[in-house]
Amino acid sequence: MILEMLFGLLAFGCFMFLVPLLWQHLNETAVDISASFDRQRITVASSRVARGLLIASIVTGLLLLILVRSFVAAGLGVLFVWLIPGWVLAGIHAYRRRLFNQQFVDVLILMANSIRAGFNLNQTLEIVSSEMPEPAKNEFGTIIRQRDLGASLDMALEDLSRRMKSESVTIFVTAIMVTLKTGGDLTKVIDKLVKTIRDRERIEDRIRTMTSEGRGQGYVIAALPFLMLAVRYFMNPESVIRLFNSGWGLAIIIVGVVFDILGLMAIQKMASVKV
What we know:
Elements: H1 2-39, H2 46-68, H3 71-116, H4 121-131, H5 136-148, H6 153-164, H7 167-182, H8 186-235, H9 237-245, H10 247-271
């Protein structure tokens, strides 16, 4: 009885702590999904996306509760439906940003050559949006659409910087805005940006290579408890099943997973170096 009360208090405390964070994550995911549709010229309100995710999580939880007859499984189902779309979307955005950063030097070279050929900045942006492959084509096409809808070029470029979350793009946007206001030579500025970005990429590649061993060790250490649990299950399934069927066992698993995630985050933080 006491064990069940302690486990219930632990579960209630975790629930009260996680619900605000999960709700914030759900709203941010809905906004990101709505923005992704908007870039494809499909208008979907973020509130509708949030309601859809909420309904899907409730339906998943009820189905698991009916099929498995376990509140733990139902809670995990609701949790995964809340989290997985955000994780998938974050992975897609990270992949797009990585591709964009790989294309960015080519974008700057194309811009410099277009300006040398006599085109102005607006025409240069249109050339980039038509000549470059995805995702640079779509991102600079968004700048053109925002400009055509009445937004200033400064606002459209700042929005690009927010979407890409890249220091190289931020430097580019700042340099363009300062040059337009002061009347400098835009071609020379872009040429210097190309050299600066290439130097930064070379240093980042070297640092990434030097810290790869630490990151790999972090992944191995984080996966080791789950591998040991799987080996234990094949050797003695009853002991693992008893662990999941007892209150103390579930509490130990939850605490272990939390500390495992915190340890992985700490290792990744120590192995990351910003340039």
